[in-house]
Write a structure and sequence with these properties.
This protein is α/β, with parallel strands linked by helices. About 35% of the residues lie in helices and about 20% in strands. Helix 5 (about 145-165) runs parallel beside helix 6 (about 180-195) and helix 12 (about 320-330) runs antiparallel to helix 13. The longest helix has 18 residues, at about 145-165. The chain binds zinc ion (ZN).
């Protein structure tokens, strides 16, 4: 028996519809979205909005056991110093936290996740999960002599994942501009070219990242110098982090720039001149947690089709909820319309990851259906809640 669903508003991934009916088959596949008159059936009615299931474009599920363990407001160099020793924990503690965090995402109406992996910790869970994943095997080392070993680590992770979970998407990806040598960037690019892989990279998450590239100084430069053999090969480019780094990334892959807390409009223009295949991932709650600062979202909204949303990890967030990220954006940038925010959390992310059956109510898709309660104007508010209803 098909299901007929209606609401004050139905957001189909691109547009908001009123007086419309969404028809699903028993497997949750979209049969149609059409006007009430055309349909003729009496639908189940929801107050608020129905929209496709959410996509969490940036998560580190394997860090879920660090919930509440890292002090807020230490800025990124301080955060990294705390995470490195604290991420070590017993296997059972890590596994239990992964299962609980995944349940939190399912309860939040998330249907798919772009997840960063530095280990195999999440693979057994992913192999049996109902969520769709793309796993980014993240590699880093500022030491060019270690580039081959680091790439091989990423490749080993990738082949372990393919053994355990053959249908999963995965790619090898660089951690951040400051933590990857030019030699390692080259090897990652070659591997992405062969695999047609997606790239995700943390970008301009802290102010001293730009300082490092402009003048080889500052807190991030000093932190990198203090690890292992330091960074004797590093030379300042004289440009900020994004213009210095984008030219090291492949033009034939989709590139996800994550955080962008200190990105300015000149950085965006320079990056887009190099490649149009850029998406910007906003993780506002993690930015507030780590840096107590938000990106200047207004400079990104002219590229609204290229914005997506992520939760980052429970090391830097108290929830893995896309709706909570949207509420935080709305609270700090009230001019952002709900329709735009929902597009970021659904169809934009599906475009980046190439998930054609997600993020849309087009006939044939299997997007999952979320019900979101709204204020009188049909906008997301601080008291909005989400429930998966299809
Ligand atoms: Zn991250």
């Amino acid at each position: 028996m098909p299901r007929y669903l209606s609401a004050d508003y139905i957001f189909d991934g691109a547009k908001m519809h009123r007086n419309s009916v969404l028809v699903l088959n028993e497997e949750g596949q979209v049969i149609s979205l059409s006007s009430e008159e055309e349909q003729g059936e009496t639908p189940e009615f929801f107050k608020g909005i129905l929209c496709p299931g959410f996509i969490n474009s940036h998560c580190h599920l394997e860090l879920s056991h660090l919930k509440g363990k890292i002090e807020k407001g230490k800025t990124l160099p301080g955060f990294i110093k705390e995470v490195v020793p604290k991420r070590l924990a017993s296997g059972s503690e890590i596994d239990a936290a992964i299962v609980a965090a995944e349940k939190e995402m399912l309860d939040d109406g998330i249907v798919a996740v772009g997840d960063i992996c530095n280990s195999e910790a999440t693979f057994p869970r992913k192999a049996v999960s109902e969520l769709v994943y793309h796993s980014f095997m993240e590699v880093f080392s500022p030491d060019p002599a270690k580039a081959h070993d680091m790439l091989n680590l990423g490749k080993t992770l990738q082949s372990r994942m393919k053994q355990m979970y053959p249908q999963s998407g995965s790619s090898i990806t660089p951690h951040a501009p400051y933590s990857v040598s030019d030699s390692l960037f080259k090897l990652i690019n070659e591997s992405c070219y062969v695999d047609d892989g997606l790239i995700s990279i943390h970008n301009q998450e802290t102010v001293s990242e730009d300082e490092m590239f402009v003048s080889a100084s500052g807190t991030m430069y000093e932190l990198m110098n203090a690890f292992g053999n330091g960074i004797p090969h590093f030379r300042a480019s004289g440009f900020r982090s994004l213009p210095s780094t984008i030219v090291k990334l492949p033009r034939c892959s989709n590139v996800l720039l994550v955080h962008n807390t200190f990105t300015n409009s000149d950085d965006i223009e320079r990056a887009l001149k190099y490649t149009p295949r850029i998406w910007f991932c906003l993780c506002p709650k993690a930015n507030l947690y780590i840096e107590n600062r938000l990106p200047d979202v207004n400079i990104f909204t002219s590229y609204s089709d290229k914005i997506v949303v992520g939760t980052d990890s429970l090391a830097s967030n108290d929830t893995l909820s896309v709706l909570e990220e949207l509420k935080t954006l709305k609270e700090h940038f009230p001019q952002l319309k709900t329709q735009m925010l929902l597009q970021w959390a659904t169809s934009n992310a599906a475009d980046f990851f190439g998930w054609k059956e997600l993020g849309t109510f087009k006939a044939g898709a299997y997007p999952g259906v979320n019900h979101i309660s709204t204020d009188e104007e049909g906008e997301i508010s601080a008291s909005s809640k989400v429930k998966r209803v299809g």
